[in-house]
């Protein structure tokens, strides 16, 4: 529904699935006086394309994934840039930098150009295309081992990131110590940020690590009492990712999912929870990935849901929900799992939130991430463990899934006049599909 005006609409369905995303409720930072500012005030997730930064003094607050992209994008245009950074951050090398450089036509551009000859080759030879993609994907999947702080890959990666950061900041060595973190890489989202560190070494770009005390109509004052006037403030301060955010969803006994998650986000494999029958969510708590391919995980989550929907559609099942014991088991497992990963280190990250632990004490827990690699997620979600679910039949008949002995296709024969036409072709297919894989005896298997 895309309603032009707010309107109360009542709707009904057998199943409710949310796909409302995780990184789209952008939020202003809570800084005293932020909205008293009379210049241009922007959030990176709500950009104004008419904003012209040319020759302006611009403050950029935040050095997360957005901040480190907006700094190099604007640095060459502005008169002065004040970059307010609350914490330190690892800046990695670009993944597959060698391939990227080889495929980029000039130094100014960081987007990738594929040559026509490559495209033609891949069109003609599917295997070489897949091999190329595998070579890229292999490097991405190889990041997972970096999440284990004692692994050789982690130790090597950390040393490489530090070496590269020192090299890229060598024109302004005084800021090196302000940027290289004490916590391990990947504890907070690791982003390459091409050009970010180089931009920070420019003479008109100032890195400010003192906290912001307040903002007035024309400028920003830090906790040390230094006031810097600016023409524009850009907040690269991220999204509301707290597990309790979002519109209320009520389950059995009127329990509000958001309140349940705000207390302790307990799910079964990230995609459903007990006492919320026929409710599923994409990118729920523990669905995200910190070192791998999120897309294949989301596909696996959706395929998993599709298998459940199929059972609801054809299996005489009215309601399905995960067993509370398995919801507890998955959530407790997540707590244990993250103890031995970089995510548990002392860093500020949207992967974490302050919620109850197993003993009911409020503490920082990793609540956004899947407890494992993305390939682990795909395997774990391959088949539905029906024994982990409680199901209610439509009519109380546990054998009702068996039907009445016939199939829809046979019944369809009563409704088509002749065996010509599209409808008839469907019926023929539905009654003879098992011949489609026919092979000759002399063919190799
Ligand atoms: C700066 C940034 C960089 C990223 N980089 C990467 C990357 O490199 N690789 C990667 O894999 N992922 C990346 N991500 C994450 C990726 O964008 C998300 O994981 C992905 O978009 C999730 O898809 P989705 O469809 O679940 O949610 P979304 O794309 O967020 O879509 C959710 C939709 O639901 C709508 N919606 C929300 N609430 C309501 C409501 N109440 N009523 C109606 N509609 C509603 C929203 O408006 C939105 O259209 C990045 C995200 C950000 C913000």
UniProtKB/TrEMBL annotation:
SUPFAM superfamilies cross-referenced by the UniProt entry: FAD/NAD(P)-binding domain
Gene3D superfamilies listed in its UniProt record: FAD/NAD(P)-binding domain
Source superkingdom: Eukaryota
InterPro entries for the chain: FAD-bind_Monooxygenase_sf, FAD/NAD-bd_sf
Family: Belongs to the FAD-binding monooxygenase family.
Name by which UniProt lists this protein: Uncharacterized protein
Organism whose genome encodes this protein: Coniosporium apollinis (strain CBS 100218)
Taxonomic lineage of the native organism: Eukaryota, Fungi, Dikarya, Ascomycota, Pezizomycotina
């Amino acid at each position: 529904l895309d309603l032009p005006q707010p309107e109360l609409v009542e709707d009904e369905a057998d199943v409710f699935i949310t796909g409302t995303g995780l990184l789209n409720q952008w939020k202003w930072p809570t800084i005293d006086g932020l909205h008293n500012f009379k210049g241009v005030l922007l959030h990176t997730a709500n950009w104004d394309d008419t904003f012209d930064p040319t020759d302006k003094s611009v403050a950029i607050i935040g050095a997360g994934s957005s901040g480190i992209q907006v700094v190099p994008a604007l640095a060459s245009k502005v008169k002065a840039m004040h970059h307010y950074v609350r914490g330190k951050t690892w800046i990695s090398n670009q993944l597959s930098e060698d391939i990227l450089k080889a495929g980029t036509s000039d130094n100014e551009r960081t987007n990738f150009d594929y040559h026509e000859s490559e495209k033609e080759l891949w069109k003609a030879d599917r295997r070489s295309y897949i091999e190329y993609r595998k070579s890229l994907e292999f490097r991405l999947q190889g990041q997972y081992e970096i999440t284990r702080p004692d692994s050789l890959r982690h130790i090597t990666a950390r040393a490489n990131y530090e070496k590269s950061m020192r090299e890229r900041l060598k024109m302004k060595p005084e800021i090196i110590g302000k940027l290289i973190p004490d916590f391990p890489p990947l504890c907070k989202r690791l982003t390459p940020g091409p050009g970010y560190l180089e931009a920070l070494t420019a003479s008109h770009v100032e890195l400010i690590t003192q906290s912001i005390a307040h903002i007035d109509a024309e400028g920003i004052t830090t906790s040390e009492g230094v006031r810097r006037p600016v023409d524009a403030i850009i907040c690269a301060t991220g999204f509301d990712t707290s597990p309790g955010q979002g519109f209320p969803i009520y389950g059995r006994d009127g329990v509000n999912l958001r309140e349940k998650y705000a207390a302790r986000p307990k799910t079964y494999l990230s995609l459903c929870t007990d006492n919320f029958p026929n409710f599923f969510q994409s990118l729920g708590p523990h669905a995200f990935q910190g070192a791998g391919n999120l897309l294949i995980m989301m596909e696996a989550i959706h395929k998993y849901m599709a298998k459940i929907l199929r059972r609801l559609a054809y299996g005489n099942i009215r309601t399905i929900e995960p067993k509370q014991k398995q919801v507890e088991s998955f959530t407790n497992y997540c707590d244990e799992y993250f103890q031995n990963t970089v995510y548990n280190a002392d860093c500020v990250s949207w992967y974490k939130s302050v919620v109850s632990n197993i003993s009911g004490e409020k503490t920082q827990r990793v609540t956004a991430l899947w407890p494992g690699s993305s390939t682990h997620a795909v395997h774990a979600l391959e088949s539905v463990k029906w024994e982990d679910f409680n199901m209610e039949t439509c009519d109380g008949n546990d054998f009702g899934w068996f039907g009445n002995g016939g199939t829809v296709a046979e019944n369809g024969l009563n409704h088509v006049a002749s065996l010509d036409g599209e409808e008839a072709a469907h019926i023929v297919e539905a009654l003879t599909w098992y011949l489609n894989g026919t092979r000759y005896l002399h063919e190799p298997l």
